[in-house]
Predict the structure of F-box domain-containing protein.
Amino acid sequence: MDGMKNMNLRKKDRLSSLPDDILSVILSHLQINSVVATSILSRRWRYLWTTVTNFKFEHDNQYLSKRRSIKFSTVVVNIVRQLTSQKLGVFKLQLSSLSNLCDASVADLCFREICGRNVEQIIIEEVPGYNNNLFPIPAFLFSSQNLVVLILRGMIKFNLPEKTDIQLPNLRKISLTYLVSVPHQFLGSLFRSCQRLIDADLMFNDYITQPEPQIVLNISGPELRSLQIRFLAHLHTQRPKILIDAPELETLYINSFTSDYYSIQNPAKLVNVSIQMYMNEEYNYFREEDCLKEMFKFVKQMSSVRKLFLRVQANEVTNVYRYFNSVNLKDMTTFPNLERLETNLDYDDWKDLILSMKCFPNLRHLRVDINMDTYTDAMDCDWCVPECLSKLKTIEIYGVHDIRYDLTLLEYILSNALVLEKLHVQRTGLKSLNLTDNKAKLRYFCKSLFQLPRASSTCEIVFRLRGFVRVSSNDWKNRKVTPENFRVI
């Protein structure tokens, strides 16, 4: 017992013997509340917490009540003021409510204390980030020349004069979430001032305020490698234009509306692209057909991609592949590097997708989500076979619900996919799996599916009814599952 006590004393003495500057470095890796709690363990450490070079307070995936969040946010400025270091590496504040900081005068004081210490990283997050309180951002924040990372998550509103001098020469990453009423010239000036920026994430709760007839958003960056743009709503009548010029861009994520106009220059290094477009009810005077044509032109600009996620949700027209299929061969844009394509379509659009694959000669993985409540009067699969169909390794089809035409389509695919390794087929749910006729339909579909001729002798077919059934053609072949003993699993 005494030996254990002596060992603990030696450990305590070893820690106590460390010089204050080393202890300060150790404490700087902890959250500020833990730092303060640690400092009261020893009289010598009583004021040691004031020497830390990081201020971090986060909930660590544990819910912090709104009441406690508000209480803590009221003392943030006082805590920062007591820090003696003139350099702040990280300021991170993650709360369930920033309501106290939504007072413009309090926010101004907080940012002045932070920016006055040559801060390198500012991370302020309200979790969840969407509420009715607007978090005001003062103009002087954008003159923090040592800032490397800026992440703001909340209902962000900029208190900026019309001509704000932005100087962020060292900024490498920016994430602004739930932007509200952004001054129309601000973002263009921001990107022009951040020549070293490599990662940008912008989410707009509503759109840019601009008195001119058309909104133009210029995004440029000589070193920008990753860009995310998300629009949650449009509260205006202009049709916006988003122009991207980033020669080093590798990853592009867009969640927007079909009415938005996009254009990209110098996309030679693009590898991963995700585009999700939704119909905007505010633009009744723009035909969906015209919007999709513009979208097709935008996608054509990105012929270097390896992975493409392309999804359109509209009232009537969702088929962008008709334009790939309709171009003349001499004008055809090919995507020689495209290996994976994920998309959605109606039943009637399969032909255009298959025929447009002539533009994707090296496609290896294909996922298709069939839109709900879509049907076709006929499925004629007498099509020419695109080159990539003989190179596909995996195909995933989700949402099949019309047995007559599904089997015709799947037979065409299996007969021409020479090296296919796995075909995943997921059917939409049935109203009841307890009814005998529904079980009979499933047995018939699986039997017919697994007996389809295959060009690839090693291809495995996996059928799923989400949440109820998963059965493989290998099980069927090995008589683990047969029409006679088929059951819901």
The mean pLDDT is 79. The chain is about 25% helix and 25% strand. The longest strand covers residues 149-159.
